[in-house]
Design brief:
alpha/beta
Length: 253
Amino acid sequence: MEFRLKAFGLHLLGSAIVLTLVLGGLYVGWYRWPGWLLCNALNVAPILALVDLAIGPLLTLLIANPLKARRELARDISIIVSVQLLALIYGAATLWHGRPLYYAFSEDRLQIVQASDLTEPEVARALKENPALAPHWYSLPRWIWAPLPSEAGEREAIVMAAISGGDDVIQMPRYFRPWEEGLPKLRAHLLTVDKQADIRLRKAKPLLRSHMLARGFNPDLPVTMIMTGQGAPLIAVFDQDTLRIRAFLRSDR
């Protein structure tokens, strides 16, 4: 039993180190709050943890027999590790492909833009037309303003495409502009919690009011804006004077 426990402990330690390096790097670089929630990263990370920290080491515990030939034991453990690595690569690739690249203010809300939202032609066009805010493979999340173009034809085409399920302006980085330039328009769209019109917040308004009161914010001031992604929407609370974001409040708990 001592041999089995030692093999289990070494396998668990190695798995934990590798998993921590991979998930830690993704978290520190891209998935910090609120990205991990808005991208539904919690749907992938627990599966990786289950495979790498539970199933893999437990299988080693079962097959680690001191009476087994060392070559046979090494073969069995290598098969387990290979399956773990495949699961880790798949999960890490999924998280990488869905990593947050932008937090965008567009029209009347904040939205998250993931790498998977951007097509190669749009990225290529942005690199030519708007290189300062175009995405690269190494880009970290940036706060930007994504206004509709001023030209009426382009504007109407984007709106109609978005209505029919096509690309919206937040998926067209050629139109992105610095965050600071959009702050005057952002201020005009700040609301009180009670005036948030999104249907997903209808039942959450009493909860959001209590969250604001608990954090020392006045829920009757027009300082909030909805922030959407794949998960439940958040409410961003802004400083009324500086327009600095002071908090993100969950609407689901």
